[in-house]
Design goal:
Elements (H helix, E strand, L loop, with lengths): L10 E3 H8 L3 H10 L5 E2 L3 E4 H11 L4 H10 L9
Antiparallel strand pairs: 1-3, 2-3
Length: 82
Amino acid sequence: MTTKTAIKPAVHSVPETARIVKTSTDNVYDLIKMGYIKPMILGAKMISNIEIDRFLDKYAGVDLKSQIVAYRADPLNWRKQI
């Protein structure tokens, strides 16, 4: 009997990424626009496992919600604070 091994996808859509990092899709789109997450464009924005891991490692313990709020209030004059 052969057992099939589930293959973990190498890239994720924005909604899938939101589920992985436990936030909203809107937050992921804002984090992309702000430069915190770097997507690939493969017909749609896709985020690799490597990029998700990099993001989680780099910003663990950082309050990004305040950054998102500042960006939404004034996206033209917002500057990355971290």
